[in-house]
Amino acid sequence: MSSVILASASTDLARRVRLASGDNLFVLTPEQVPTGPAQLLGLSNGTGPVQAVMLDVTGDGSQDSSLGLAERFKEQFPHVAVLLVTDKPAELGLPALRAGVRDLIEPELPINELRWVIRRAIETSAAGMGGSAANDPDPVGRVITVASPKGGVGKTTLATNLAVGLAHQSPQGTVLVDLDIQFGDVAAALDLDPAYTLADVVHGSGLRDVTALKTLLTKHRTGLHVLSGVKSPVEADDITAQHVATIIGLLKSEFRYVVIDTAPGMGSHTLAALDHTTDLVLVASLDVPSVRGLRKELQLLDELELPPATRHIAVNMVDRSGGLSLADVEATIERKVDFAIPRSPKVIASTNRGRPLLEDQARDKISRDLEQLVGRFSPIAVRKSTLSWTSRHRGAAS
Where, residue-wise, is CATH 3.40.50.2300 in the chain? Predict the structure, then answer.
């Protein structure tokens, strides 16, 4: 059956959308698009219910007429998701939101991302009508929370590299949230100057609608979406744990990967994030205070029976000259260390440049170690047959 209509003069876009949506695609040129939604839906020749309409307004495309058509769809056929293909997403963001457009798609979006965006738009529209877009809908996005009991362990470095690594494979499906409410520095780590922050989400319409929330995200050069922390610690007083829960709930309904960088410890905002977390990455450095703090945090999670069940232990800045080994860490926390990231001057240099190591997709040793972390969460990551840094060096560090 035909479930998607595409209006575009680009044969390449039509080919990729067809691969993304299967054979359930009806294609017409922009000149063939009627002004009324009912007439457009009728062009599919009754081959099946239309669930999404994609309008290509790339370049000097008919933006005004397409936005007008989207608004009429919102009024007459709200169960049909309207998407705009555009090379000017920042310019069209607010007008598209007002017109009821479900999402903006960049022209060169990879096929797997097209598949994700189309499916999410259809599911969102169906959910708004109280229906279901499919008999077996995809699960919500994977929420990966990076936490640590103490500061100074490189938590933000791991979170930004993890997010950038996932964005290489899912550029439109990955979002990074700076949940270190008062003193987060995700924006600095990514060399971003965000126009909007968490404070704007809380005081605006971003808490009510995921499309509105997406307009407040900052786009990184890798395609990663970023929700930055507040610009002043004073603004953090207005952000509650309930706000955090609402924001994460909206983001995980829209994005394949939601990466959260938290403040040190187990504050109320972090606890709110844990209610949505599917994977918890606990980070410690190779020193006694950090390892003891990690043990206490693990004990607290067990005592409170806090989710998630899936936990990943990462020891950062590993240096064999420090007097501790990975075996010492495992003996203290009574758990296996999943990832060991060695101390490297390249990490410090990349942080100062605001350019995470994985942004350049280099093949040096430290980048390969960080890719091992990314590979734990991405189903399409290349699984390396060689031994990880942990297994290669566990004996030497003991």
Answer: 4-128
